[in-house]
Amino acid sequence: MSAFVRDPIIRMVRVCKSYGGHQILFDVSLDVGEREFLTILGPSGCGKTTILRLLGGFEAPSSGEIFLESRPVTGIPPYRRPINTVFQKYSLFSHLNVFENIAFGLKIRKLPRAEIGAKVLRMLELVNLKGYEKRGVNSLSGGQQQRIAIARALVNEPKVLLLDEPLGALDLYLRKEMQLELKNMQTSLGITFIYVTHDQEEALTMSDKVVVMNQGRIQQMGTPQDIYNEPTNVFTSRFIGESNIFDGVMERDFLVAFGGREYPCVDKGFAAGEAVHVVIRPEDVETVEPSEGFLCARVLSSVFKGVHYEMLAREDVRTWMIHSTRSRAVGSEIGIRFGPEDIHVMKREAGK
Hints:
Strand content: 35-45%
Structural class: alpha+beta
Oligomer: single chain
Number of domains: 2
Order of helices and strands: EEEHEEEHHHEHEHEEHHEEEEEEEEEE
Largest sheet: 6 strands, mixed
Number of strands: 20
Low-confidence stretches: 1-5
């Protein structure tokens, strides 16, 4: 569960969206807590950007309702919502300098010049670009332009900031740096962030709550720890990290069978004899001597990934993925071992 217990600042209730007879979202219901960092995670085309466009007022739902601070917002245009958006393409004004880009919305609101100056300078300090006021935006790096786009959105003091894959154009080092900066900004400002990405590392690193989507439907919601450690279906377990997934049978509470053998586990609440999926993460598989393992397997491949070796090993009709700091020679026999807490049991999905 999220740590936030206040009434949600945003509530979506059974929202559907169609374009030209093609349905994009199916009965999406979602609560976003005040001052929460929520990430919508999923593959391309799953509907996550459509949700942002609905929240921002750029699109209207085909059915269902959206509430902001308990008030319906359907029909309220974007400029009248206390919501700002940062897109992957930053859309900075190339003919304006950094100061003028950030100040643009404040000038439209006709705020006093001194107040505009103070707000812009505060934003520049927040995004670590103090002293860049007179620089042209085209002279900035991609990471700096991204910071200006965020400052321009935040200077208007929105209650909610929508971010549509804003780090997608940055290199790996800058993405990791900006993940931490974005989370620090959100925490210090106390603004609700709703962040869209297909990158699982971004979602797990920054979020208070993660919403996993696929084909227009929410698959699972929860903390990053819940999503990773307790996936509720095959899609989530495969999309969030790597997984070994096997067919099994729940013999009784705390006992599951797969591969012709029974194993103690920590799961309960299934019917005796119920068909289930068994998930074991690669990093939870221990490699030992063949005589010490529950199972014996032969190593098919071993690839160094920087902090661990990724190995594939075959036992009977199953292939295991294993992440270990210790490499095993290709072709060698190994034992495979895991504990009850390493086994996660899920309901078997129809047709799978």
